[in-house]
Specification:
alpha+beta; 3-stranded antiparallel beta sheet; two-stranded parallel ribbon; 7 helices
């Protein structure tokens, strides 16, 4: 997928998360953040393909040891598992790793918005196109504006620096993911649909963005 995506590492991660299989997006994030093939591993947990190599967020040659692996139903549809890891000594995390994790979650948000739009574009409610309802239009507009602003911010920072207040951006991504999920209603519960992407994004934040500045 990466050979078909142009632009900076930040833009490549965003576009891969938006258009490719989520497992590919996670793998691309690891490759672009560390130069190593595999999946990023947080301090205590990792979301990854079963059997794939794990790379510490610090990108140091530390051994990442799996203590237990769970077949999480919410991410199994993406060919992903959640593993608990053996504790390791905290180490500094390069700023670009945090930046690319933000780009990854932003791309997944864009993917959920795309799915919600496709789902609603031919539907009607109260005698008019669902997409023409003021609340629906406002939610799409707000999320689109947020993503545009975020991509500009990430482009200015580039892959070598860290965005200002990553926690602020992760909180905003969480809010917009919730809005997209509400647009889908029960249809978002289908395998690999919006609610699954929302859950995956939350796991990514919990495992890879829970520490700002230190980690493993």
């Amino acid at each position: 997928m990466l050979d078909r995506v142009a632009g900076s590492p930040v833009e490549q991660v965003f576009e891969t998360a938006r258009k490719a299989h989520p497992a590919q997006a996670l793998q691309a994030t690891c490759l672009l953040a560390t130069g190593r093939d595999g999946f990023l591993a947080g301090a205590c947990h990792a979301v990854h393909r079963s059997g794939a190599p794990l790379v510490a967020l610090s990108n140091t040659p530390v051994e990442v040891v799996i203590r237990d692996t769970e077949q999480e139903p919410g991410i199994a549809c993406f060919d992903l598992v959640l593993s608990q890891l053996k504790p390791r000594a905290p180490q500094a995390i390069p700023p670009q790793v945090h930046t690319l994790v933000v780009a990854l979650r932003a791309g997944l948000l864009a993917r959920t918005m795309d799915l919600a739009f496709v789902h609603l574009q031919d539907r009607e409610s109260l005698g008019q196109k669902t997409l023409h309802h003021q609340l629906v239009k406002a939610r799409f507009s707000d999320t689109s504006a947020f993503l545009s602003q975020l991509r500009r911010e990430l482009a200015v920072v580039g892959s070598e620096g860290i965005v200002d207040s990553p926690g602020r951006l992760h909180n905003a991504i969480d809010t917009h993911l919730l809005h997209c999920a509400k647009l889908m209603g029960g249809h978002g519960l289908r395998d690999a649909a919006v609610h699954g992407l929302e859950y995956l994004s939350v796991l990514i934040r919990a495992t890879l963005a829970s520490q700002q500045g230190t980690g493993v």
